[in-house]
Structure formats: structure tokens, C-alpha cells
Amino acid sequence: MSRTLSLSWSRAASHTGVSIALLAALALPGRFVHAQPAPPTAAATASIYKVEFAAPPDSVKPGTSVTSTGVAPYWLTKAERSGYRQTPSYDETIRFCRQLTAGSQNVRYLTYGVSGQGRELPLLVLSRDRAFTPAAAIATGKPIVLIQNGIHSGEIEGKDACLALARDILVTRTRERLLDSVIVLILPIFSVDAHERTGPWNRINQNGPESMGWRASPIGLNMNRDYMKVETPEMQALLSRVFTQWWPHLLVDNHTTNGADYQHDLTYSVNHGPVVPRPIERWMTHAVSERIIERTRAMGHLPAPYLSFKDGSDPRSGIVDSPSAPRFSTGYPPLHGRAAILTETHMLKPYANRVKATYDFMVAILEELNARPRELARAVAESEAEIVTRGREAVTSRRDVVLATTSTDSAESFPYRGVETRWETSPITGASVPHFGTAPWDTLVPLYQLQRPTVVVRQPAGYVVPQEWRAVREKLELHGVRVRRLTRAWTDSVEIAHILEAPSNPATFEGHRPLEVKRVQLERVRRSFRAGDLWVALDQPQGLVAMHLLEAQAPDGLLAWNYFDTIFQRKEYAEDYVMEPIAKRMMEADPALADSFRVRLIRDPAFAKDAGARTDFFYRRSPWADPEQDRHPIARALRRPPESVFAP
Ligand SMILES: [Zn+2]
């Protein structure tokens, strides 16, 4: 009880600066301390909390479409019928999907699992060949595109754009040619439960629709951080039942951005640099950043790379365009040798504009794929081959893999289309706050894209996963990584990562305290493995995903996501009076050890004052110490096991 109270005091005090005396009074036994102010009345809410956007709310006449022509009233989407003030609920969305299947032979409505709250997860498959199973779709040889909407359910224009586009391809057939050479999978809503937590107060920075969904899943997880650790039921279903079955060549993930005001209506991101297999990186550079973006500009939009400024909200500091880590929708598919595009429309633009920008961007993407369908398929095949070949590479220097990069100071210049901005010191924040006008402010700003490696790891021959780490097997299977079970014991020299420095994040992040593995030393040891342990070969298309899960320094590896935290916890301790005589004998027997202890006492005053650390100095160097402590449990094999250990 007292613990809880003192915690709430310190939190409240640090946030509000309210005096401790007042808080003490409020915290008297039997009283309830409100962390939040009481909710305002409806009238006060409307006048006090409403956000006025520079762009007026939509003035589109209800019943008209900003994307499509010749649509009969029966086929209008809810967004179109409402003049883009509203977006359909989950049930209304499913109904429209079913309406599409009744109106066309070239679409099928499928479900691929259930959400945390028990809702079916919807998937539309659009195929001219009526290839409605993964095997049939892959057999066509056409590129497969997965368009994902509502991973952040409040950012929902992707859904309204895709419902209109599917109708225009399938029913009004004004866009039917887009299906000539491509198979299109659409997730109308991915985070379905969060989509139904709808309300007008969910996204303060966003200009419409009137009511929108929520960012995180009902258990508080951001699904666009869940691609590697795969902890939400929705992501488990997506990876195991969609991604690793249909194997889409391209994932398009539609969002609405946050950030500054500017003229750009559409921003996008693709991964680049040495973390991405080269053939797919080349495709994303030429097909997306050049041709698709050019096509989108020709449609009247103002596209820009995702606008993350080096210095907060000041565009003059330059745009930092760095690749996303594998936990993100744009970081994950490239590990499979596949392409991914992040769409972020500008949240201050009215909803109709954002639906149109997303619709046109999807059209531009599909036009590019129809114009050069084999190019993407070839880039994926070559990327997979690059991964497999590296897994078999005998020359060790060619086995180096870049797991993470950082931006360099080298910049190109980018024609930024901003708006006139005035900075004013605010009595509220005590700092300067931008006030955006409407006059255009066109300028050149630095664009930082060039990357340099920060984590490079030499690929082992493969990994051996001891069977007792059961979560590892589950994750490998969810990601489609092929594993082989040892049927007999195997002993060999392997490399084990000794984790020397890995501070955990001081704050909770996605229900974890992720580790930043800073220093690792590979130790060569002889290990015995049992029947039932798992062999993970790296000459497979999922070899890069396996490395990103199993390497100690991988930024989104299972070690970073706390799956092996027990290795850091000490299990046995020496009493000081037990260790002390042993320490004396160790010093007598080993003068070098004695010297290093004395040097440490002089150079490290904190150590000198810490009796426990001094005892531990000797304990850790004695045979009593736990040899497994701080060691990554996944073994890096120096060679593949003989076939005999897999024999039935
Ligand atoms: Zn988002």
C-alpha cells in the first residue's frame, strides 16, 4: 500500500509540480487520487478541445467520389456516401467486401484467423485467373501484392481507398486492367479490435474522419513493432497464414503521418542500404523511388520521402531517411528478399484528399507492376538466391552480414515544399512553438540517405537451438524458417556469444525492456547437443530472418526482446566468509591474478568500496562460477552436422 502511494506521489509531482504537502493531503487513506482530470461536459468539450485545422473539413458533396467515376449509388462506399466525413465500421466493411464478391467472379473474401477479441481477420483476394489459393496464385507466376490497411486503425484512409479501388477493378471495371498481370491481396482492416475502439478523440493531430479507431491493439501493443517478436494474435495470423503462405512479392502498408505542416500530401518510405538484399533494394530504388513516385507526381500529388527531420520539427535541419528495423512493416519483408512500401499521407489534409492520395498511389504501384511484372518477381528470386548463396559461401569474408546501419553526414538536396512558419516562444511549453501559415515556402533541404554499417556479423554455418528454449521454435515456425530436428546426439566445437554489455531500456517499450547489446565476445567451446535440438541452416531463403532472430547483436533479435533474460540472472552466490579464504589461496597461487586485483582496487574506487563486487571478482574466476551466465544459448555452428544425426 505505502509503496503504491509513494510511487503515485513521485509520478504526480514530477509531472505537475504540485507541492508534496497537497499531494499528501489528497493521498490520505480512503481518498482516491485522480491521475486524469474529470471529463468535461459535452458543450465544454466541443468548445475547448476541438482542433481547428488550416485546411477546412471536407466540402465534398455526399454521394460523390473523389477517386472514381460512373459509380451507381448501390456501389458507393460509406466514405463516398458521407462526403468523406465517415468511414465504415468493421461490420459495414465486411458487408461491402461480401457485396464485392457477389458482384464479381474475380474476388474472394477469406479470413485468416481471429483477433484477440474474437473478430475474424478479413482478406480480399483479387485475381483475374481466379487463383484464390496460395498454390494457385504462385503457379500463375504473377507478382503478388499485399496491401495492408489499418495496422494503426485510426489511420484508415487506406481502407476507404482500397474499397473504392477494388470496386473500380471488379465492378465498375474502370480500373480492371490493373489486374492483368498482378494478384492483389487486400487487408481492409488489419488491427480490427482497435478499429472498433472508435471515437472522435483518438488522434488529436488528424483531420478526419469524424470518428476513427485506435493505434494499439486491445492488449496495448503496437502491431507495427511486432513483425519480429510476433506477440499479437493478429500478427501471428498474418505471418503464419498470409505472409508465409502467399509469399507476397510486395507489401504496401498504408498509414497517416504525424509531424509538421507542409504542402506534401503523400510521404513514403522504402528500406535501403546494406541491410537490404541488393536486387530488391535496386527494385525499390528504381521502381518505387523513381518511377512510381514520378507517376504519383504526374497525378497531381506532392510526394516526399517520409519526413523525419534531423532536428525535431525544423525542416531546415534536413530530412533523415534511414531504413526501418525489422520490427516494422517496411523492415521485415526485405529480410525475406521481398519489397515493402510505407505510405504516410499527411494528417492535416482533409480526409477526402488523403483517401485520394492513397488511391492514386495504389494505382501508380499497380500500374508499375503491370508494366513490368517480371522485374519484381525477378528481383525477389535474385534476392532469395543471394541469401541462399551466402549461406553456402566458403570464403569467410563473403559471409559478413550487415544487421544495422546509421545515417552518414553525406546529403543530397531535396526540393522541400513547406509552408511559411513563424516560431513563437510559448508560455505553456517555455520553448518556441511553430505556427504554420498557408503561404508556400519552397526551399532546398539536405536529405540524408546514405548509410554506414554499425553492426556487422560473420554468418555461421548455421545455428543449433537447444530444445528447451521452446519460444524460439515457435518464432522460427511463425516466420517460415525451416528447421531440422536432431535425431541423435551431436558434439562439436561451436561459437557462443558472451554478452559483455547489454543495458536494458530504462522505460517499458511494447511490454518489454529491450536490451541494447553493445559488446559481445565470441567464445569457441565444445558443446554436446541432444536428440530433439534444432538445426537452423542458413542456405535457405529465410536465412536472413533466422540471423535477425538468433544473432546476439541483432537489433530486433530474440535476445534484444528479452526472450533470454534469465541468462543474465545469477543463480548461486558465495557467502563472503566462504569465498574469502579461497580468494586468498587464489592470489597466492596466481600472482598475475593478485596483481590485477590490486590494480583494480587502485583504479576503480567504486569497486574498492564494494565488498560484494570484490568477493565476486574471485567467485567469477573460480570453478564455482556458472559457465552459462551471460552466454547466448543459441550456438553458432562452425560446420553443418553430419547427415547421420538427422537419420530417422
Ligand atoms: Zn501509423
TrEMBL record:
Chain spans, region Disordered: 625-648
Gene Ontology CC terms, in alphabetical order: extracellular space
InterPro entries on file: Peptidase_M14 (IPR000834)
Domain of life of the source: Bacteria
Named cofactor requirement(s): Zn(2+)
GO molecular function terms noted in the UniProt entry: metallocarboxypeptidase activity; zinc ion binding
GO annotation, biological process: proteolysis
Domain Peptidase M14: 95-229
Record-stated family: Belongs to the peptidase M14 family.
Entry protein name: Peptidase M14
